TrEMBL record:
Alphabetized UniProt keyword annotations: Angiogenesis, Coiled coil, Disulfide bond, Glycoprotein, Secreted, Signal
Designated name of the protein: ANGP2 protein
Family matches, as InterPro entries: ANG-1/2/4, FIB_ANG-like, Fibrinogen-like_C, Fibrinogen_a/b/g_C_1, Fibrinogen_a/b/g_C_dom
Phylogenetic lineage: Eukaryota, Metazoa, Chordata, Craniata, Vertebrata
Origin species: Dromas ardeola
Residue span(s) of domain Fibrinogen C-terminal: 127-252
Length: 252
């Protein structure tokens, strides 16, 4: 009986030792799992931080891209505006070149007048042709190239109108609608006077709205405005299409 008891005690002791060993192993494994969980939590936190950082970087890159696109759009707009300004400058340059050419013609004509004797000069300024023409361009085409007073026929009538024709400026053949030089004629006039015309074609005058209206509705006309101040400064404006409405439409 004693031997059997001793064996049982030994077996219990062995089981106890084995159990303690297993408990230690379990404890070690538990500690290892805890460490792994902590490491995993740390790694998850790092991943989240990196994702947040990556998201911020992506947002920063997107913002920078949007800013660059906006800058490109502004630059394109500036380029388009500069191209428009270049076109305008080119057109203005062409106009200035034409004005310079006309001015040189005017200077040449003035020099010719200065070098012409007074009697011939007066004939040059106030020469009056008795042949009737539709307009000054028609007179010019007929071979009359001297500026002066010409007789024009009112369209669709047998009436005649005296007008000053500029045969030198810009190729010649210009029918002068208004001429003002020294203030000798009062231009504060009535509707009827502006309709019929007033003044003297040899000096200051207004050709007449009715005549201009009928004339400019026959075919296409070009309007040229020439201004000169008391200091000798000159300016020009040229309109490729010009016509005057009838009296019912207030000669617009």
């Amino acid at each position: 009986v004693l031997n059997q008891t001793t064996r049982l005690e030994l077996q219990l002791l062995e089981h106890s030792l084995s159990t303690n060993k297993l408990e230690r192993q379990i404890s070690d494994q538990t500690n290892e799992i805890t460490k792994l969980q902590e490491k995993n939590s740390f790694l998850e936190k790092r991943v989240l931080e990196m994702e947040d950082k990556h998201t911020l970087q992506l947002k920063s890159i997107k913002d920078e891209k949007d800013q660059l696109q906006a800058l490109v759009a502004r630059q394109n707009s500036i380029i388009e505006e500069l191209e428009k300004q270049l076109v305008t400058a080119t057109v203005n340059n062409s106009v200035l070149q034409k004005q310079q050419h006309d001015l040189m013609e005017t200077v040449h004509n003035l020099l010719t007048m200065i070098s012409t004797p007074n009697s011939a000069k007066n004939n040059f300024i106030a020469k009056e042709e008795q042949i009737s023409f539709k307009d000054c361009a028609e007179a010019y085409k007929s071979g009359l190239t001297t500026s002066g007073i010409y007789t024009l026929t009112v369209p669709n009538t047998a009436q005649e109108k005296k007008a000053y024709c500029d045969m030198e400026t810009g190729g010649g053949g210009w029918t002068v609608i208004q001429r003002r030089e020294d203030g000798s004629v009062d231009f504060h006039r009535t509707w009827k006077e502006y309709k019929m015309g007033f003044g003297d074609p040899a000096g200051e005058y207004w050709l007449g709205n009715e005549f201009v209206s009928q004339l400019t509705n026959q075919k296409r006309y070009v309007l040229k405005i020439h201004l000169k101040d008391w200091e000798g400064n000159e300016a020009y404006s040229l309109y490729d299409h010009f016509s005057l409405a009838n009296e019912e439409l207030k000669y617009r």
